[in-house]
Every structure is written in structure tokens, then in C-alpha cells.
Amino acid sequence: MKRRTFIASVSALFAAPAVPLAAASSAVPAALTQHFAKAKLLARCHDRASPEMFMRLMKLDGDTARGVFNLLQDKGVIGNGIDGITRAINPLNTHCVPNEAVRARDLAKMTSDIAKRVRDMAKRRLEAIEKELADDAPEPETSDPEPPQTDA
Length: 152
Known about the structure:
Strand content: under 5%
Number of strands: 0
Structural class: mainly alpha
């Protein structure tokens, strides 16, 4: 045996445990890689991901959806979550999701409208109470015991 091949094989034996197992077996099925880009975009747009979401939006079967979900976790696109629902690591719509923005603006408008309506109702009720009190107040009696005198 030549010295060069012997040293290469011995160094390979010692270097093999240092190589991560995931890097050595990075063979990802082609079915998952073809869906990876779309799943990544969906996860970043929605700022969340789950296998059920991929099944529904991408029309995938359960095994493929779970595989795509696991691939996204392995690549660091989504974080590890609870109950299969995770958040995107780098979402596209940070604090500018149209539905959320519109919902907040509508809530603020609705709150100001309610405050205005309450003020108007209180004002009308106060005016009604003042009018009722004015109507119920006894009229001052002007009883003159003596008839007015005329100079003639």
C-alpha cells in the first residue's frame, strides 16, 4: 500500500465523526425540493406555517406536506413551534399585513365613532331632562291683591 493512500484513509477515519450526519446524508427527495420555494414563500408571507396549511394551500398529500414542513425547519426558514404551527424566522410582512392594518384602523375609527355617539346620546338625554324639569317647574303665581290704579 502506498503511503499517500494509507495516510488519506487513516485521516478519513478520524475526520468522519467530525462531519455532521445531516450534511453526509443531505439527499432530499425531489418531490420536496420542487415544493420548497413555494412553501418558503407561503410561510414568509403568512408569518406562520403548518403541514395542514401546506396541504390546503398547495394541495399536497399529508406525507409530502410534513416533509416540506420539516425541510423548512431544517433549512431555518421557520422556527420550532408548538403543536405543528411555527412562525417564520424572517417574515415578509413585518407589521404591515393589510388585514391587520385595516383592522386596527377600523377599530380606532369604530372607537372614535362610539365615543361620538355616546357624547351625542348624553347631550340629547341631558337636554331632554332639562326640558322635562323646565316643564314640570311650577309657574310663578302673579297674584296681585289690589287691582291696578288708574289716575283720572
